[in-house]
Design a protein that fits this description.
Elements (H helix, E strand, L loop, with lengths): L11 E10 L2 E9 L2 E5 L2 E3 L6 H13 L1 E15 L6 E14 L9 E7 L1 H6 L7 H11 L13
């Protein structure tokens, strides 16, 4: 409850994964509000789901890749200037296990791509949000925390 307005507020809780294979990162090309943008595999936490489960599920739904989470990169808070919506993103490092090539991807997803970090940086004007570049920079800088930091009771 906000003491100033008397209304209840909470941010959108989202998850994202940085999946690396042979020096390339798994990225999602998606259509949002008629615009093509790039993002990590990412999405919203669903009811009765742990944050870790959400990260694995969203990656599969958006890319067709089964993954194993290896580390927690960090938590990121961001306010979208165009809508005022606020997000709390939980970002994870993961390794690819296998691809389900025949799997239909989520609505709006155009394709999943394995891109070099320099290619992702060159697409910065098309990133879905500034969270994309920040999470990748932190990952490439070695930010890794144990998954045990996140508990679901």
């Amino acid at each position: 409850m906000s003491y100033r307005t008397g209304t209840f507020w909470q941010p959108d809780v989202t998850v994202a994964t940085v999946v690396e294979r042979d020096g390339r990162l798994l990225m999602v090309e998606e259509r949002v509000a008629g615009r093509l943008v790039y993002n990590q595999p990412a999405g919203h936490l669903e009811p009765d789901e742990s944050i870790l489960q959400a990260a694995v599920r969203e990656t599969l739904e958006e890319t067709g890749w089964h993954i194993a989470l290896t580390a927690f990169i960090g938590a990121y808070q961001w306010k979208a200037p165009e809508t005022g919506r606020q997000y709390l993103r939980m970002a994870f490092a993961a390794e690819p296990l296998r691809q389900d090539a025949g799997r239909a991807l989520d609505d709006g997803i155009v394709a999943a791509h394995w891109l070099q970090p320099a290619e992702i940086e060159a697409l910065q004007a098309q990133h879905r949000s500034p969270l994309v570049a920040r999470v990748i920079a932190d990952y490439l800088s070695g930010f890794r925390h144990p998954l045990s930091m996140l508990q679901s009771l």
